[in-house]
Structures are given as structure tokens and as C-alpha cells.
Design brief:
By secondary structure, this protein is an alpha/beta fold. It is 32% helix and 24% strand. It contains ten helices and 13 strands. The strands form four sheets. The protein has a five-stranded mixed sheet, sandwiched between helices. Strands 8-13-12-11 form a four-stranded mixed sheet, with helices on both faces. The structure holds oxa(dethia)-CoA (UT7).
Length: 317
């Protein structure tokens, strides 16, 4: 038994931070950010935690799916920016919802929403669950270095959720990891042990932009081609590609290398920036709200980021 996506939900903070606002913090400007990244504005939390945003997105997904919270058998959350190492964001969502099912977090950075889907597939295959709530939730502003113009202009906060129920909508996925911390790293506080001699690196997002860029373009091309080949499909069979929203130029490059019309890629980075694990479920929910998604359509999700990890999956809507 596999699953289908029964409903999606999203939440972004009300507080809009424009590129002009960012230019008051670091030496940057609206023209550079739009041209090099594709971001026009982002939402940044003025009080919501990652767990709060996850909860609000979950409520919306439950409502849209017509699923009562008591029906949920498992909660899976992806986040790199939860407030606490423990309890996990998933445990806090379980608490806020007032339900009793198991709940845990997965960390696969920006690719994590697809890792969540694949993890959920295992629970469905074993007949352990009938309904699963999955959420990507990020308060990246907690781990953004607001003195580093090469990273802070890129990211935003938000959450996206989906309720999964038994069905045959989830078709296949590819997951890839090239482990290492030299390209993207988000260090934790190293602790106060007087014995530990390791270096304390600033606990913010550190990223080598150009190397990440190349990894992103090659991952999209490699992962999506691998998936289509395995399922004996062509690009004509795919209604939409929903990529992780990291940089509009990454999508432009990938589209031209794959010879796929740019219009097949859904993009909302202009309004939210890069919300890491939340970017794909936010995009899916927006597409659904706009009436773009029809039952039976094939949707291809593709993501890449810290780890380094990348993933792609095929969903029949
Ligand atoms: O979600 C996780 C995955 N993340 C990604 O996929 C991100 C991938 N990487 C990128 O999106 C891009 O590499 C960045 C947006 C991070 C950077 O864009 P870039 O076109 O690769 O710029 P660059 O690092 O090559 O820098 C070009 C110039 C530099 O100035 P000089 O040395 O040529 O004088 C930078 O100092 O742009 C400068 N620069 C900026 N200028 C104005 C860097 N950041 C800024 C800025 N405003 N915010």
C-alpha cells in the first residue's frame, strides 16, 4: 500500500521584509538580489517559532483534507531551525494538536520534504498507518547571519504541510547524499565543556554559494532524469516540476540543460525566498489554492541542499 496527498496547508509570517529593508542591514540592493537570486521579499518571524508555523500549516492541511486530527497515526517534521534539539518540532506539533500518535523529526536540510515522503511510504508499506501528517517548517531567521550579505538575503521563514492517506499517488523517489560539511554547514553551539578543544564556529548558515549552485543544477538534472528513466516516462508526461526554491537562476539553468520549458517549473521564490524544507510544500499548497493541480496529473518534486543531499519524487495528484 502506498499513499496519496489528501490535502496541503501553508503558513508564512505576516511580516514582509523587502530587499530595500535588507539593504539597511548589509551592503546589498534590490537589483542585485532580484537578478542573482530572484528574491523580491521574504517573510521573517517576529515571534512565531518553527513549531508554531508547523502547527498553523498542519491545521490548514487537516482542514483541507477533511481529516480529523485524531485520525493521524504519525507526525513527521523536517526542520533545521527548530528552537530545541529536544523536544523535536514534531513532538511540539503533537502537543499543540493534543493528539497521542508517534512524532519525530528528520534532518535532510532543503531536500527533507522528499525524505519525509519516502519515510512515510515505509510506514504505509508496512500497514502501520492510515493517515500521516508531514510538515516542513523553518524559522531560518534564527540561524541567518544578518551580517553576511552572501547568505542573509536568500532565506525566509515559513511552513508547509500535507496530510497523506492510503492510495496510489506516491509513485517513486530517488535520494542521494554526498556527505560532508565543506560546502554548507550550520554549526550548533559547541557546549561549555572545559575539556573540548574544538573550534566554535558561528552558529549560523555557512554556504559556499557557487559550489552549492553547481551541485543544485547537476542534482536537479541527474535526479529527475534518473526518475523519469526508471518510470519509463518523458517530460511530456509531467504536468509540473516543483523544485526547491533556492535561486531562480538555478531553475533557469536546469530547465535549459534538461530542455524543459521553464513554464513547467513552479516558482514562488520572488515572494518567500528560500524556506528550505518548507519550500516545496508551500509551493504545492499555493498551486492547489490557485486551482493548478488536477487529480491524476503527474507532479515531479526535486530538491537539493545541505548534507549535501538531493532527492526527487513522482506524485500522481
Ligand atoms: O537551499 C540550499 C541550497 N542553496 C542554494 O542552492 C544556493 C546556491 N547559490 C546561490 O544561489 C548563489 O551562489 C548566491 C546567491 C549565494 C550567490 O550568487 P553568485 O552569483 O554565485 O554570487 P557570487 O558569490 O559569485 O558573488 C559575486 C559578487 C561578489 O562580489 P565580487 O567579489 O565579484 O566583487 C560578492 O561579494 O557578488 C557579491 N555579493 C553581493 N553583492 C550584493 C554577494 N552577495 C551579495 C549581495 N548583494 N547580497
Amino acid at each position: 500500500m502506498s499513499f496519496s496527498i489528501l490535502g496541503t496547508g501553508m503558513y508564512v509570517p505576516d511580516h514582509v521584509v523587502t530587499n530595500d529593508d535588507m539593504s539597511k542591514l548589509v551592503d546589498t540592493n534590490d537589483e542585485w538580489i532580484r537578478r542573482r537570486v530572484g528574491v523580491g521579499e521574504r517573510r521573517l518571524s517576529t515571534g512565531e517559532t518553527a513549531a508554531d508555523m508547523a502547527y498553523f500549516a498542519a491545521l490548514r492541511a487537516l482542514e483541507k483534507s477533511g481529516c480529523a486530527k485524531e485520525e493521524i497515526d504519525l507526525i513527521l517534521v523536517a526542520s533545521v531551525s527548530g528552537e530545541d534539539i529536544s523536544p523535536s518540532v514534531a513532538c511540539m506539533v503533537q502537543n499543540k494538536l493534543g493528539v497521542t500518535c508517534p512524532a519525530f523529526d528528520i534532518n535532510a536540510a532543503c531536500s527533507a520534504f522528499i525524505f519525509l515522503l519516502e519515510t512515510a511510504a515505509g510506514f504505509f508499506a508496512r500497514g502501520k498507518v492510515k493517515k500521516v501528517l508531514i510538515i516542513g517548517a523553518e524559522r531560518l531567521s534564527r540561524i541567518m547571519d544578518f551580517t553576511d550579505r552572501s547568505t542573509c538575503v536568500i532565506f525566509g521563514d515559513g511552513a508547509g504541510a500535507a496530510v497523506l492517506g492510503e492510495g496510489d499517488g506516491y509513485m517513486d523517489a530517488v535520494l542521494h547524499v554526498k556527505g560532508g560539511d565543506d560546502v554548507i554547514k550550520i554549526p550548533q553551539f559547541q557546549g561549555m565543556s572545559p575539556y573540548f578543544k574544538g573550534e566554535q564556529i558561528k552558529p549560523y548558515i555557512h554556504m559556499k554559494g557557487q559550489e552549492t549552485f553547481k551541485f543544485a543544477v547537476s542534482s536537479i538534472c541527474h535526479d529527475t532524469k534518473e526518475l523519469l528513466q526508471r518510470e519509463s516516462l518523458t517530460w511530456d508526461d509531467i504536468a509540473y516540476i516543483v523544485p526547491h526554491q533556492a535561486n531562480r537562476r538555478i531553475i533557469d539553468f536546469a530547465a535549459s540543460m534538461l530542455k524543459v520549458p521553464k513554464e513547467k517549473f513552479y516558482l514562488n521564490i520572488e515572494r518567500y525566498g528560500n524556506t528550505s524544507s518548507a519550500s516545496i510544500p508551500i509551493a504545492l499548497d499555493e498551486m492547489d489554492q490557485k486551482g493548478m493541480l488536477q487529480r491524476g496529473q503527474l507532479i515531479l518534486l526535486t530538491a537539493f541542499g545541505g548534507g549535501l543531499a538531493s532527492a526527487a519524487c513522482l506524485v500522481r495528484w
